[in-house]
Request: fold
Amino acid sequence: MSRRTIGCMIVQILGMLVGSVLVAEETVYRVPPKEILDIIDVKPDPSISWSPDAKWMVLVDRDSMPDIADLARRMLPLAGSRIDPRSNSGFQTEFLRGLSLRPSGNASSEPAVRIPIPEPIRISSISWSHDSQSFVFSRVTDDSTELWWVSVSNPTEPVQLTSRLNSVLFGFDWMPDGKRIVSTLVPTTRGDEPAPPSAPKGPNVQESFGNKSPTRTYQDLLASPHDEKLFDYFTTTQLAILEPNKPPVFIGEPSQLGSVQPSPDGKYLLVTTIKRPYSYLQTASSFPKQVDVWSMNGKSIYRVADIPLEENIPIEGVRMGRRAIAWVPGKPATLIWTEALDEGDPRKKVPFREQIRSLDAPFQAEPSDLFQLEHRFSGFTFFSSPSLLMTTEIDRDRRWIRSLLRDLDKPKTEPKVIVDRSARDRYGDPGRMLTKPNSAGFAVVQQTGDWVWMAGMGATPEGNLPFLDRKNLTTLETDRLWRCVPGVLESVVSMVSTSSQDGCTFVTRKESSFEPPNYFLRDLAAKTETALTGFSDPTPQLRRIKKQIVKYQRSDGVPLSATLYLPADYVEGTKLPLIVWAYPLEFNDASTAGQISANPSEFTRIGGTSHLSLLTQGYAIMDDATMPVIGDPETMNDTFIKQIVSSAQAAIDHAVSLGVADRNRVGVGGHSYGAFMTANLLAHCDLFKAGVARSGAYNRTLTPFGFQSERRPIWEAKDVYMNISPFMHADKIKTPLLLIHGENDNNPGTFPIQSQRMYQAVKGNGGTTRLVMLPFESHGYRGRQSVLHTQAEMVEWFNRFVRDAQP
Reply:
């Protein structure tokens, strides 16, 4: 063998070894630059769980990011849900890590009392009693879920109510007395988990006999008879009443309880039970079910609804029969619901779409017809007087919201119009009516005499300026009691006390671009402000970042906006590489499309996979650059490509005109529908040097019954589905495209295969692309390793192809 041959072999072997090393390096998690790591890894401030009367607060410790090992636990995807089989609960990726209780007085008046909790501290939920004297929390162990009771009078001695909580479908709720809990438990008679068959008994078969059933694409669906057995096993529960230091009181036999709600008088239970046959195309929420009124001994005394599989529903339609079934607060036991008058089909032309009905205990008479709605029912709002009822309805064609207040004791009186506006009209939003639990724990509007209180975000052309109003239900007069001042962002959290006069006290959450969020007690009569918390700035290195709302126009005259961020060390006159980050939204008209939704006074924080981390790398960022798609709701996507390209061009032109951006170094990015936008921009324009698309859908033929706000199925708009799919234009994508996706994405439509096939398409056509699939991650990325790796990938990609790109 010649030396040359040996030398060639050595070179080949070394090449193989180097290649192996490179492959190995590619498979390990990476971290971003230290300046980003120091920001992302900061421990977050506690969140606050307020008692209903706002006199107590629970400070809740949180993780900044869970370890990937928390995400790697066993998980069962069944019927559109993700189940933790060890804890008999929904699968969680993040837990609360500690609880402390203190009265909501001055921030420095009383120290918080730490609640003793056994290790490991994995708290999944907290719920206050409506009397504000106690709260419960659920704790996930290695093999169960526990429910614990804490009294505000003795917080250092929590009481375990059960270690058999099953919250896969329901979990628990408070009884009207505020002293007991109604809950679903793991049956004591449950055996071992069904074992998978060693070999299939036959194929998995589905069939249809001419039933038209348009279905959105869902993930985590049932796929086999064994899946059905697992679903039965983990969703079958035993209903019970729990009380501290007392044994559970079992109600009825084990069954698949989807929801349970006690009547206001505590004598009945409104129970939804799931039943077969199941579907392999629908989630559990669409499975057949029955809704019954039970007595407290578990006997059904009235069948409210028998609901078949929800599979023959028109796109954006609703099912036939009784829907939105609920108890009426303030009455002992009265049911209320709505029924579609248009067969649930939004395309049918009818004078009224909904009939509102009610029925009183003992549920032996015929239901009463209360009134009809012109548009699709959207929700009930209840008041302390049970004769008052507000309904909200949506006009699908105009994207219009209307809320009407009725006095049921005066059925011939015309309802009062409380809200009547475009669903997209931020500036015209009058806010929400503030509610509180009544004596039985049901949410009713907070009211004094004829006055109710309304709080809103207060969108303006200068940014959000939240407000507190009072509204007279008789005269419909509205008074502005308080408004956030420019320069800060302060919004109403909870009312503490009210009067019919201007005087009231309420809790707010206040922040500014230089001050972290904290809670305050405002007394309007005394004109005082008392700090309730004193959280400090966790990332002072971000305070010198510059940001402002910028406004500009699209070529067709549509007003646009974005929040422009500049690095902390920015020198005036310097032209920086620019990142445009966006998410398209649909509008009926240009006036609402141009409204401002951001606030320059919001405290700047960078966490998780936020693209704002790129500020540390010397970029200017046009964040939340508006990408409106305007037109008739039935056909607006016909011009989707043209409109987003025009919006992108306008954003870049404006940043360049301000003297902060280099037109030759611009990148674009987005998440979910923003990723879809990103890939389309790279396919249909040459404005960008690179793109980052996270968790997107790129082939719309895989979502054939509509997507986002697209109402037409593919068979009615084949050209639109083809033209709007960047996958179909992969041969045009020559701009470098980074694709990132969670391997366990459960978002409807954004199946992981969307990114995998998009990568293959771009690669196969000679484009520059990279695919990063994140193990155990869903639609948003949570694990610390995944988050840091995503940051590292974005930084490296944009630095290589945008910031450091050669002319």
